[in-house]
Design goal:
The chain has 399 residues and is α+β, with helices and mostly antiparallel strands. The chain has 13 helices and 14 strands.
Length: 399
């Protein structure tokens, strides 16, 4: 069988070709970095545009990170008819609506029935088996909603309830509202009855279920905004998102400081503080992203996939997804660990101290009033958990 290829486009402009042959793939990037029309596909291509990136099975790492994981992947393959579906063919099926502004299109799909998908290597992080594909989620246009956002030209991610984690939709909704009230860059969020969201699989929902809706930051009226997650920035495969290759929050901070300056680094520190206080112990590489609103300038993307896991007993003592300097347990993190992170990343430790104090103060002020009252009404266990962490964690007490 002769190799086949797919055209890779960014904002509709061809930037390379992805080749497939007997289960393996390779990508040849051909955009002109010096052109005034050049836009950033990924930092790895900016740094080294001439290297051919390949994989003996599956996809090169940057493209592998465009694919869904876990149960969502299984659901899509079932809708494709089941069986062995290669990563390449799955990418082609999803190629017109991938994250960011990249598309991958081919004239025909290969006969890959003999090419089984690459197995994901195991890892020892406590969340890998419990949280891979935690929630089924779908991209929904506002025209398919009868919730209050209906009628706007916007795109939303609809996350279905998780049957193993109680009130996960409410959990993420109130957490994101809390962060928005505290001044974080958070997309619009909604809780909506499942019956108000058209096109969701009926067999996965009950009549009384709530669906969590969050607006997509990579879709704007009339166009797309390109983005890449930190697994793509690091050029590692999805199964390495918990730092198996050595990534830490310090190395992530160094990249953010280099790409976005002090403003992005301060926002990163604030989110880490919030992650510790909230108990978001799943803030791995794929739950952070850079986006390019003007096509070229890297900016820390808005907050997404942010919720408490420590509210659930089985995750109460789970370590952070990546390490801070000298510590990985949220219950032992204090301001000195963030100061050490800043120092390792090349930033000012005093900046970290100021950012930590300001962030904790903002979070305390925001967790009040109508938001707190609604959280107590809808999810009292979560409300009590947050109040306990705001008063009991070393990171919160020290500021």
């Amino acid at each position: 069988m002769a190799p086949t290829f797919a055209v890779v486009r960014l904002h509709g402009t061809e930037v390379g070709a992805l080749y497939y042959d007997r289960g393996g793939t390779w990508f040849e990037y051909n955009d002109d970095l010096l052109s005034h029309d050049h836009r950033v596909l990924g930092q790895v291509f900016e740094d080294d545009p001439h290297t051919v990136r390949s994989a003996k099975t599956g996809l090169p790492a940057w493209f592998a990170n465009l694919l869904p994981e876990g149960e969502l992947r299984h659901q899509i393959i079932r809708e494709m008819g089941g069986g062995n579906v290669s990563d390449y063919r799955l990418l082609l099926r999803l190629g017109s609506d991938l994250p960011g502004a990249v598309t991958v299109e081919a004239d025909q799909e290969p006969d890959d029935s003999a090419d089984a998908p690459a197995a994901e290597p195991a890892a020892d992080h406590a969340l890998r088996y419990s949280l891979a594909g935690m929630q089924l989620k779908y991209s929904i246009h506002s025209s398919r909603l009868t919730a209050p956002v209906s009628g706007e030209d916007s795109w939303w991610v609809a996350k279905l309830p998780d049957r193993t984690l109680t009130k996960l939709a409410e959990n993420e909704y109130f957490t994101m509202r809390w962060l928005a009230t505290a001044g974080f860059d958070v997309p619009r969020v909604q809780l909506a009855p499942a019956t108000s969201v058209g096109g969701l699989p009926a067999d996965a929902l009950g009549d009384d279920d709530l669906v969590y809706l969050v607006e997509r930051f990579d879709r704007i009226p009339g166009g797309r905004v390109h983005s890449e997650d930190f697994a793509q920035l690091a050029n590692v495969w999805p199964h390495q998102k918990y730092g198996e290759f050595g990534a830490t929050y310090s190395t992530m901070g160094a990249v953010i400081l280099h790409l976005t300056g002090n403003g992005g680094f301060e926002a990163f520190l604030s989110r880490l503080v919030a992650a510790v206080i909230v108990g978001n112990v799943d803030a791995h590489l794929k739950n952070w992203a850079i986006y390019y609103p003007d096509g070229r300038t890297p900016t820390l993307a808005p907050v997404y996939d942010f919720h408490s896991l420590t509210v659930y007993q089985r995750f109460r003592y789970t370590p952070l997804a990546l390490a801070l300097p000298g510590e990985r347990m949220p219950s032992r993190v204090d301001p000195s660990h963030l100061a050490d992170l800043a120092r390792e990343a090349g930033a000012s430790p005093s900046l970290a101290a100021e950012t930590v104090a300001a962030t904790v103060s903002r979070l305390r002020q925001a967790w009040s009033g109508d938001l707190l009252a609604q959280a107590h009404e809808w999810y009292p266990t979560l409300a009590a958990h947050y109040e306990s962490r705001l008063h009991g964690l070393p990171l919160a007490r020290a500021t």
